[in-house]
Design goal:
By secondary structure, the protein is an alpha+beta fold. It contains 14 helices and 10 strands. It has helices at 3-7, 57-81, 129-146, 164-175, 178-186, 188-198, 201-204, 206-212, 253-264, 282-296, 302-306, 308-329, 341-358, 360-368, and strands at 15-21, 29-36, 41-48, 103-104, 110-115, 120-121, 219-221, 230-233, 239-242, 249-251. It starts with a helix and ends with a helix.
Amino acid sequence: MELALLVNKFNVKGRLVTLVPFGSGNINDTFLAVYRNTFTETQLVLQRVNRNVFPHPEQIMRNMHAITLHCHEKLEADAKAGRDDRVWQMPRIIKTKDGEDFIQDENGEVWRVITRILSAHAFDTAQSPEHALECGAALGHFHYLVSDMDPNSIEDPLPGFHITSGYLAQYDQTLAQTGARELLEASMEARRLANYIEERRDFAISLEKAEAAGELKKRMFHGDPKVNNIMIDDFTGKGTAMIDLDTVSPGLVHVDVGDAVRSICNPAGEEELNLGKVAFDETLFLAFMRGYMREAGAFFTDADRAYLYDAIRLLPFELGLRFFQDYLAGDKYFKVRQPGQNLNRARVQFRLCESIEAREKSIRDMLKTL
C-alpha cells in the first residue's frame, strides 16, 4: 500500500504535506508525517513494527497502549498537583479512523502512528555532566511512572532479554562447536577473553540470584535506555521524555541503570580500537546517578541500592559476552563490517568492566551519597 494512503487511514486533522524517512533507528521503518491546516501544524511518526525483531507486533501494540495510558494519567495528575519542575512528555498513540491502535497492510505488516516529541532532540553520546544528569533524570522519571504498574500486565516482548544466565548457556553451546574451538585455538586474545568470562561466571548471575531470593522486586524496565532514546528540551536543556517503548519489559530496573551507565560513562564508545582509551568516567557517572535517584529514589529499597554496583558492573560484561559469543558463532547476530569486529567489541566491553571493577570502592562510596 502506498504510504500516503496508509497514513491517511489514521485520525489526523489537516492536509498531509510531507512524508519522509525519519530518524536513525535500525529496527522499525520510520517516517515523519507533517499535516497542516490554516492555523496549525501537526508532526507525527509513522512506523512499521519489525516482525523480525518482534514476531508478535500486535502484542507490542497492546503493551504500548497499556503503558502510555498508565503514564499519561500519572503525568496529568502530577502536573495538576504541581509536582514537577518541568513538563514531562511521552509519545501518544494516534487512533485509526476505525478507532484502533494500528492497521495491518495487505502483507499483514503492522503500522502505527504516534506523536512526535517537539522542540526536543537526542544525542548519540553524553555531551557533559549536565547532560548526563538530565539523562539520569529522564530514565528515573520513566521508572517512577511505571513503578506502580503490575509487571504481569505486560506481555514480555523479548523473552530472555537481559537474562545473563541464558546468554551464558548460549555461549556454552557455541563453545561446543568445531568452528568456535578453531577460533579459540587460533587467537591468544580470544582465549584471554574466554578466561575472563570463566572467572566471572558466579558474579554474572548475581542479580538473578537476588531476585530469586526475594531481595529484588520485578518491576518494569525500558530495555533500551541508550542516550539517543532520551529527549532533551531544546529550550531548557532538561530531559523531557524517553522514547522507543517497544522493549519495555517486566524485570529489574537495575538492568536499565547498568545499561545506561555502560553507554554514557564510556566516552570512547563501543568500536574503539585503542583499549587504552576505554575507561569508566566517574564524573559522568555521578551526574547521571544524581539525576536518576532524584526521580526514582522514592521507590528504591535498601536492597535496590545495595545491588546497583552489581548492575553497573554486569551490563558491560553481559554485552561483551554477547559480542564474544557471536564472534565465535560466526557473526550471526550483530552486524559487522570487517572480520574480528565482534571480537574487538567484546574487548571494549570487558575493558570497561575491568575499569569499573578497579573503581569499585569509589563507585560504592558515590552511591552511598545519593
